[in-house]
Write a structure and sequence with these properties.
Layout: H1 2-10, E1 35-40, E2 47-51, E3 58-61, E4 71-75, H2 78-88, H3 91-94, H4 102-111, H5 116-129, H6 137-147, H7 157-162, E5 191-201, E6 204-214, E7 217-218
Antiparallel strand pairs: 1-2, 2-3, 3-4, 5-6, 6-7
Length: 219
């Protein structure tokens, strides 16, 4: 936490970059347990935080998002968070990466050039921390989010009171050479192995909920 400690001592005004400091930590239903809030976007309740148990990883909390998309990691540590800001110039770009593709990310910078006020803050960060801008920020964030185990995030009771339980889905009977719900009398169904992983391929994010082990191979 040395980088964040130094940042706190310098009292840098990050509001031009979309990160406001507030004395009062008003928490939302989707703010994780053990969260230390480090800044606010100033709109839609969006805030940035560390979460106990995840070291210096920086998360963005977006209460107006759809269920299941309230919390996303955006930097492995606070130093990388500052490097991302040096590249992007505005935290707004960071908190929307999870649902953007590369072209949308690039379009944001074309439509929102860095202002003189923002550049002044960025120059201060670069000078005080001797940091270089993050190369390929979009890929960096996408890969971080694809590898992150979201099941590790814990919430307060307010979250579970707000979010209705997921409906129980019917069991899939998966065969090697049939559709998911086909009935094949002479073959056994595949044995499910839960994966629940994401990965990036090109400019897309792919999700693998499960694989099924069949006598002929994997599905």
């Amino acid at each position: 936490m040395m980088t964040y400690k130094k940042y706190s001592q310098l009292n840098i005004d990050m509001a031009p970059l979309g990160i406001e400091f507030r004395e009062n930590e008003n928490r939302y239903f989707c703010t994780p347990k053990g969260a230390k809030i480090i800044g606010w976007a100033g709109v839609d309740g969006i805030h940035y935080c560390f979460v106990r148990g995840f070291g210096e990883m920086v998360f963005v909390i977006s209460p107006m998002n759809s269920p299941g998309n309230y919390v996303h990691p955006i930097a492995k540590d606070f130093k990388d968070f500052l490097r991302l800001l040096l590249t992007c110039g505005d935290a707004a770009a960071l908190n929307q990466v999870y649902f953007w593709d590369q072209s949308q990310f690039d379009a944001f910078f074309k439509d929102n050039p860095t202002s003189a006020e923002q550049q002044s803050v960025l120059d201060t960060i670069r000078e005080k921390f001797l940091l270089t801008p993050m190369e390929q920020p979009f890929t960096y964030i996408k890969e971080l989010q694809a590898m992150f185990d979201y099941s590790r995030i814990k919430f307060t009771e307010d979250y579970y009171d707000f979010i209705p339980p997921e409906p129980k889905l019917p069991e899939w009977k998966v065969y090697f050479d049939c559709s998911f719900w086909a009935h094949h009398k002479r073959k056994r169904t595949g044995k499910e192995i839960s994966i629940n992983k994401q990965f990036t391929w090109g400019d897309k994010v792919w999700h693998i909920p499960s694989i099924y082990v069949c006598s002929e191979g994997l599905v």
